[in-house]
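This part of the workshop introduces the protein records we will be handling. An example says more than a description, so a record of this kind follows:
>
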Amino acid sequence: MNNFLHVPSLVMAKLREAPDHLVLPGAHRYDVRKLNFLWGHGSDEDRVLDLDLSTHDDYASLRFAGVKDLAIPSGDLISAISIRILDASAFLPEMPAAIRVEHPAGGGLCFWADSVFRLSAAIETT
């Protein structure tokens, strides 16, 4: 199995051309509020990650399926992290998956996923 935690330079070059995914336009303006994951024992689709994100004006809950190479930096406050969601589907099969999630400045929370969709409106509780 290839290790994509350290993304090869050819893949990085292609990712620079990848557009933001339409599931959440402007995802980089959102802060991650909550991260839940479930790792099944079966296929890639059994590896699911839910992210709750918010801005001052919006709250979104996204479900990623087929998650690969999840990296969560230790010591970082998860609530202070922003992400980019890239649509890498145009570059398949050269990419490990159709979706790349990463910190806008590099490093930080990152992973690959086969699919993503927005869950019904979530209600944030305190």
Remarks:
- Confidence is low (pLDDT under 50) at residues 1-5, 122-126.
- The CA atoms of residues 33 and 62 lie 12 Å apart.
- The chain has one domain: 9-118.
